[in-house]
Amino acid sequence: MSPSPLAASPEVLALLKDLHTKSLTQEATVDWQSLPQQCTTDFDSIMLDKFIALDQDKCELVYHILRSINAKTVVEAGTSFGVSTIYLALAVAENAKRVSATTKPRVIATEKEESKAKLARAHWATAGKEIEDVIDLRVGDLRETLTSDLGTVDFLLLDIWTPLALPALKLVQPHLRPGAVVIADNTIMAADRYQELFAYVDAEGSGFRRVTMPYKGGMDMIVYQ
Ligand SMILES: C[S@@+](CC[C@H](N)C(=O)[O-])C[C@H]1O[C@@H](n2cnc3c(N)ncnc32)[C@H](O)[C@@H]1O
């Protein structure tokens, strides 16, 4: 087996493995075909106890991208129980150790459900202070929580109900630095629900370029300018 791409302690790697296993086990119990529409009360109540964490291989790629672009300020739209957030935090904390680093590392995470945010905080506490210290968790609707104090953003993770992907991108866009990366999940599986986002990103002069990667369900990497 090849070594983990993450610079992380054996304890954190074990925690991540455990959280991904729990998430996948839970996902296998969900009847995905019969779910109500996203962004409805019925859908949200079914999802209230669900991890639906970003898959491990996708998280590892995200971590690598953050290390590569030297990201210090990251926004996560959709935090749930905080699994992907741990990868984001590990990467920005590691980037901050570079000799040239001046900006304080920060992961601006946002989650609508207080009960999910509470569990996310517990997972970060288990992961350790290095993780906890760089996360700025904003509990509430991202259409409110992402309207202020973002600074210059290097990376945006769109792991959110699809109707919220474009609103989240538009809120963060004025703060994206040239070369910033946006990742959107499940772009092949949910291609029909991403049409508005694709049209916006693909429009001439949008400042964005994207590529769809053949991960499970598809994942888009969008580069700004
Ligand atoms: C796919 S999950 C995120 C999974 C997480 N990134 C991970 O890998 O562990 C999407 C989350 O977005 C949250 N969410 C839904 N609508 C939201 C909104 N308007 N503002 C903030 N979060 C929202 C949901 O409650 C859900 O927990």
List keywords for this structure.
binds S-adenosylmethionine, 7 strands, SAM-dependent_MTases_sf, 225 residues, globular, Rossmann fold, 40% helix, 7-stranded mixed beta sheet, SAM_O-MeTrfase, alpha/beta, O-methyltransferase activity
Chart the SSEs and their pairings.
Layout: H1 10-27, H2 41-47, H3 56-68, E1 73-77, H4 83-95, E2 106-111, H5 114-127, H6 129-132, E3 135-139, H7 142-145, E4 153-158, H8 165-172, E5 176-185, H9 195-202, E6 208-213, E7 219-224
Parallel strand pairs: 1-2, 1-4, 2-3, 4-5
Antiparallel strand pairs: 5-7, 6-7
Helix pairs in contact: 3-4
The protein binds S-adenosylmethionine.
3D architecture notes:
By secondary structure, the chain is of the alpha/beta class. It has one domain: Vaccinia Virus protein VP39 (Rossmann fold). It is built from nine helices and seven strands. The protein has helices spanning 10-27, 41-47, 56-68, 83-95, 114-127, 129-132, 142-145, 165-172, 195-202; strands at 73-77, 106-111, 135-139, 153-158, 176-185, 208-213, 219-224. The protein has a seven-stranded mixed β-sheet, sandwiched between helices. Helix 3 packs parallel to helix 4. The longest helix is centred in the N-terminal third of the chain and has 18 residues, at 10-27. The protein binds S-adenosylmethionine. Residues 47, 52-54, 78-84, 110-113, 116, 141-142, 159-161, 164 line the site of S-adenosylmethionine.
Spatial separation of the terminal alpha carbons: 37 Å
- Determine and state the CATH class: Alpha Beta
CATH fold-level label: Rossmann fold
How many domains make up the coordinates?
A: 1
Helix content percent band: 25-40%
Treating each run of at least 4 consecutive H or I residues as one helix, how many helices? 9
Radius of gyration: 16 Å
Shape: globular
GO molecular function: O-methyltransferase activity
Keywords: Methyltransferase, S-adenosyl-L-methionine, Transferase
InterPro entries: SAM-dependent_MTases_sf, SAM_O-MeTrfase
Pfam family, one: Methyltransf_24
